[in-house]
Design goal:
about 120 residues; alpha+beta; Double Stranded RNA Binding Domain; two-stranded antiparallel ribbon
Length: about 120
């Protein structure tokens, strides 16, 4: 997509406003992503009021990344990684599903991190 078809869109994440170039057909998705991230940041700030906005934002980003990596909709590959064979991809997808099942049995990442940080701050 060329820069000519981009428009400047304003989003606010964790209290900071950003002006971004974004194709018109992707603006709704970007606004939804910013809203989703803001909800995660607010949730973490409510759970640990002592955290700076920067730290709460990083924890929220980690939670979102964890959700993404545990969904079977996305395949993550390292830069410059060679193509995997179909068999390797099947094994990886099975591992992702197993990880999802294990994840459902545990608390989500942000709650664990916030409670650990809360305990450390009491020392």
């Amino acid at each position: 997509m060329s820069k000519d078809s981009d428009e400047i869109i304003s989003i606010k994440v964790a209290g900071v406003e950003y002006q971004l170039h974004c194709p018109k057909d992707e603006q709704r998705g970007l606004l939804n992503a910013a809203d989703y991230l803001n909800k995660k940041v607010r949730k973490i700030k409510r759970q640990a009021k002592f955290l700076s906005m920067e730290k709460a934002s990083v924890l929220a980003g980690l939670e979102v990344a964890n959700e993404l990596l545990n969904s079977d909709k996305v395949e993550i590959s390292e830069p410059n990684e060679q193509e995997d064979t179909s068999e390797q991809k099947i094994v990886e997808n099975q591992e992702v599903r197993t990880d999802e099942q294990n994840t459902n049995k545990t608390e989500d990442l942000s709650i664990k991190l916030v409670s650990e940080i809360s305990e450390l701050s009491k020392l």
